[in-house]
Amino acid sequence: MTRRLRLPFVALILASAALSLSGCGHEEKAASIEAALIEDVEPIPGVITVDPHVNANTSGTFITLSVTADSNDEDEIKRVAREALKVILNDPRIGHGSFSMGVFSPDKTINIGPSDVGCQGTGTTDSLRGCVL
Q1: Which positions ≥6 away from 32 have C-beta within 8 Å?
Q2: Per-residue pLDDT reduced to its tens digit, 90-112
Q3: What tens digit of pLDDT does each residue of 59-97 get?
Q4: What is the phi/psi pair of residue 98, to 5°?
């Protein structure tokens, strides 16, 4: 390969390596937040399942959490939702980002979210923290 072609070729290789490395860390961050959510919510009495989904990328962190309670009693499901919000939003591992959560009855006929337990926000962890702190 001639010297003239070698320099653009090396530059192209370095640029492609830099682009592929720029996405590094997002998958690990998402997995870490998902693990923290499970660790925070599973021990709450009345919780059957915890299903987090986190998408972390250069645009931010987007958290969706589905929790199934062991009751069809709306007050009990609200208690689970309040406890889950409190522990999640006080956990520094969760960080900042878009956040949505639903606590469902086992048959999925009842769905309780943050606004159902008095937490009004704009759908971000920061906007909801004032509700539980």
Answers
A1: 93
A2: 999 999 999 999 999 999 999 99
A3: 899 999 999 999 999 999 999 999 999 999 999 999 999
A4: -70, 140
